[in-house]
Design a protein that fits this description.
Chain A is an alpha/beta fold and about 575 residues long. Chain A contains 16 helices and 20 strands.
Chain lengths: ~575, ~250
């Protein structure tokens, strides 16, 4: 069979060009590796661009008492101790340097009176810790990384979608992809592959996530044989827009609350007094999301089924300066002037704490040569992520993944590429063109979103989750039969037929893990098991592909060393 | 529910034409929602580029009723209801398919611009005032609407000689970075074609981020070039040092 594809070779291939992918690329390049970055969209459009609030780093510019130890403690507490403690430690220790590095590459942050990087308060953080620039921190970060990477010489393959990892004797050897522009195939040969593809929010109906967030990186790793971990922990951000319908789910940054915004129900009550009187609106996201959901469910919601979030008690100029994009977002999309009145907000599917199981130091997955960083990787955030910890996660573990991937490439000989795997990948990708039924990938996607929204949402039960698993089985059959109209040229329906496969894999992993975890911890709330179970504090859910399908296992959490235990014990508040 | 007609360009480099689609209009709906409805129910292969749907990524640029806009921020209820809403791809870039154009030229131009380079021995202290001054340029979301509307590119196709408003904004953001030590005036004059801009302000009018591109980026950069290359006093001053330490 003659090759229907072009071939490229890199020491390190990075899938995804958000913060983690770009930071990994810069580091691998600095190590002398040849680096390719493949991304589904144009460069600079990844989800990092939407991060608003800031980067958490214990720089102690505003609160001198802050230190990595407090950041570590806050992160572990926020994640209800399911976090990989070593990752939480590295993250807290290294994020200040990663922020300074960004600044040295040209990023500009808001400043303190004395000219240092300004830090703001955020949910679950003891001190003012989030380095930010207004409410567009992610944009500043991605531009800085993008320009740095491009100038340093990364090769970027834009609007190119990886549909399969290639393997050689149990280790990764490259990836198979296609160009969206013309539908042509491309095979990458690489000694190391870094997955930095972000999350899975597009499997839910109400989500802050873009079309790209289909869990494809996790699905690629799973299909290749790597382990997924803690997949039941899906973060619902407490504040998404609820009205008008077209904007439902769009994120309202936590910085609104960080800057003093208050939540009220329709009776005007500041309801967080009931749920977390100490931290109020700046409680952790899992708590605030459940509180809003409960208020609405018990009949105290706003006209459009949300809560009021109000920052209008602050001077109008201050609001416009600190939250400029929120001001415009509400003005243009909802006809609401947030300097004059409250916003209506409600929970929106936002972030995946679970993902590819990785080693804390190297970000290597359980498959040799395959690395993962950022949202696609599991571990750092445990059962609930604190706001601001995701941008720092991207920088700290993006760098570590790039470093280890380059080192791995240096000590590895070029892997073999098995053309039968490529043939197989081609066949699978083209199959929807040969389906002549009436099933549309868009219809299957809409139904999947309803299943996940209604049965695998903020509150879960044994009954719902079992029902969800049964419905997912039916959706898999329908997705397999979905047909595609038109040509291979920039065809979103075709792309969705592939995305569906990934979304169904991760959705099943979420539902399986959620069903097994018979307790409520962090973002995972079981109505039928409302309390923490100390037994479940000691183990992770692992999802792995075996012959016969998806298998769930449990894996014990490694004992924390004494010095870290000491840090957690220091402050009992 | 009310219905609207969207007249959307369908086609590729081999040609094409507009096709009418009838779409139910929900409250607060934006043009991008209408395009998604078409994809999901009427034309699954309709090519549209988008990401955040919140005006933050700059992917969904198109020409709506003849005006270059982000489709995610263009509300259906702001458009006349009595006639079809026309949606065309950006004209200044080669067409790939439907509403998707080949914007790769922009990424090639960007490579010509050297990034931030701190002055030697700089102390990393910055005043908020200095941050505020350059914020305007740094909020650019690279939607390329300014590039699309600029007549130097749109009518005269000077892509080889002229970088376009987006990249003057980028250079302004670097040049006015309080700690930057690089002088890009020569680059602006000789390689980015700043002189071609005759300040018609079309770019400023279409910028969804409301960056005052002409007044705050292009004109000050033009002044910088004039000062450095055409003003005799400054030229003498430059011989004795002053201004940025390192020229390209």
């Amino acid at each position: 069979m003659t090759a229907h594809y072009e071939t490229r070779e890199h020491d390190v291939l990075i899938i995804g060009a958000g913060g983690a992918g770009l930071r990994a690329a810069i580091e691998a390049l600095a190590q002398g590796a040849s680096v390719g970055v493949v991304c589904k969209s144009l460069l600079g459009k990844a989800h990092t661009v939407m991060a608003e609030g800031g980067i958490a780093a214990a720089m102690a510019n505003v609160d001198p008492a802050d230190s990595w130890k407090t950041h570590f403690r806050d992160t572990m507490r926020g994640g209800k101790f399911l976090n990989n403690w070593r990752m939480a430690q590295l993250h807290a220790q290294e994020s200040p340097d990663r922020v300074r590095e960004l600044e040295q590459w040209g990023a500009l942050f808001d400043r303190t009176e004395s000219g240092d990087i300004l830090q703001r308060a955020f949910g679950g953080h003891t001190f003012k810790r989030l380095c930010h620039v207004g409410d567009r921190t992610g944009l500043e970060m991605i531009r800085t990384l993008q320009d740095r990477g491009v100038q340093q010489g990364i090769d970027v393959y834009m609007e190119c979608t990886v549909t399969r990892l290639l393997t050689d004797n149990g280790r990764v050897s490259g990836a198979f992809a296609y160009w969206r522009e013309n539908g042509r195939f491309i095979a990458f040969r690489a000694k190391s592959v870094v997955i930095a593809t972000g999350g899975i929010g597009k499997a839910w109906r109400v989500t802050s996530n873009s079309w790209e967030y289909t869990g494809d990186g996790m699905a690629l790793a799973y299909e290749a044989g790597a382990e997924l971990m803690d997949m039941e922990f899906v973060q619902f951000h407490p504040t998404g827009m609820v009205w008008p319908p077209g904007v439902q789910g769009i994120l309202v940054t936590e910085a609104v609350r960080g800057e003093g915004g208050v939540l009220r129900n329709k009776a005007g009550e500041r309801f967080m007094e009931k749920y977390d009187p100490k931290r109020m609106e700046l409680s952790t996201r899992d708590v605030v999301a459940r509180s809003i959901y409960t208020e609405v469910k018990e009949g105290r919601g706003t006209e459009h089924g949300g809560a009021y979030l109000d920052i209008s008690h602050k001077p109008a100029e201050y609001v416009k300066k600190k939250l400029p994009s929120m001001y415009h977002q509400f003005k243009e999309l909802a006809d609401v002037d947030i300097t004059k009145g409250p916003m209506e907000v409600g929970p929106t599917c936002h972030y995946m704490m679970g993902g590819i199981r990785v080693d804390a130091e190297t970000a290597e997955s359980t498959m040799p040569g395959l690395f993962a960083a950022g949202e696609a990787a599991a571990g750092l955030h445990g059962s609930n992520r604190l706001g601001g910890n995701s941008l720092s996660d991207l920088l700290v573990f993006g760098r570590r993944a790039g470093l280890a991937a380059a080192q791995n490439a240096r000590r590895t000989s070029a892997p073999g590429v098995d053309s039968s795997q490529i043939d197989q990948a081609e066949k699978e990708l083209l199959a929807p063109f040969s389906n002549f039924g009436t099933e549309s990938p868009y219809a299957v996607h809409r139904d999947l979103q309803e299943v996940m929204q209604n049965l695998v949402g903020i509150f879960r039960t044994d009954e719902d989750l079992k029902k969800a698993l049964a419905e997912l089985e039916e959706l898999k059959v329908r997705a397999f039969k979905a047909s595609v109209e038109g040509s291979r040229l920039f065809n979103p329906g075709w792309h969705l037929s592939y995305d569906l496969k990934a979304m169904l894999i991760v959705s099943e992993a979420v539902a399986h893990s959620a069903l097994a975890r018979t307790e409520s911890r962090g973002a995972h709330s079981r109505i039928d098991h409302p309390n923490l179970d100390p037994v479940w504090e000691k183990k992770h859910n692992i999802i792995v592909r075996e012959s016969g399908g998806m298998k769930r296992r449990e894996s014990p959490i490694e004992e924390m060393p004494e010095d870290l235990k000491q840090i957690l014990a220091e402050d009992k508040s | 529910m009310k219905e609207a007609t969207l007249r959307v360009f369908r086609g590729d480099s081999n040609g094409g034409g507009s096709v009418d689609y009838s779409v139910p209009v929900a409250p607060g709906m934006v043009v991008l929602d209408a395009l998604h409805y078409i994809q999901g129910h009427l034309a699954p292969d309709l090519a549209v580029r988008w990401n955040c749907k919140a005006g933050k990524c700059g992917s969904c640029s198109a020409e709506v009723n003849g005006r270059p806009r982000l489709t995610c921020k263009t509300r259906m209820d702001d458009l006349p209801q009595d006639r079809p809403v026309t949606v065309l791809p950006m004209k200044s870039f080669p067409l790939i398919k439907d509403l998707v154009t080949d914007v790769s030229w922009n990424y090639r131009v960007n490579r010509k611009i050297p990034p931030f380079e701190p002055r030697k021995g700089v102390e990393w202290k910055i005043s908020q005032l200095d941050v505020d001054r350059v914020q305007e340029f740094r909020k650019c979301i690279e939607c390329f609407l300014c590039q699309n509307v600029c007549h130097v590119l749109r009518e005269h196709d000077k892509k080889e000689q002229f970088a376009g408003p987006r990249f003057f904004v980028r250079v302004a953001g670097l040049e006015m970075h309080p700690l930057d030590g690089l002088n890009r005036a020569g680059l602006l004059k000789d390689h980015l074609g700043l002189g071609y801009c005759n300040i018609t302000k079309c770019c400023t009018e279409v910028c969804p981020e409301e960056i005052r591109i002409t007044d705050n980026a292009i004109i000050p950069l033009k002044e910088r070039v004039v000062d450095q290359f055409y003003d005799p006093l400054t030229m003498i001053f430059r011989v004795f040092g002053g201004g940025k330490e390192k020229s390209l």
